[in-house]
Amino acid sequence: MSLSRSSNGPRSASPSGRVEHLPSLTPLRGIGALWVTVFHFGLRFPNLHASDYSFVREGYLAVDMFFILSGFVISHVYKDIFARECTDRDYCDFLKARIARIYPLHFVMLLVFLAAVALESAAISLVGGDVGPVPLTGEHSVAGLFANLAMLQGLWARGLSWNNPAWSISLEFIAYAVFPLLFPWLWRSRRGKAIAGLLAFVALAGLAWHTGGNFNQWNGFPAILRCLPEFLLGVLIYITYYQGLFAQPLASDLTLGLVLGALCASVHGVASDLGIVLLFPWLIVAAVRNEGLLGNLLNAAPLRWLGDVSYSLYLVHWFVLFALVQAVRRLAGLSLREIPPAASVITVLLLIAVSVALAGVMHRSIEVRGGRWLRRRLAVGRPQSRSRWVLFPT
Question: Does some domain include residue 350?
Answer without folding.
Answer: yes
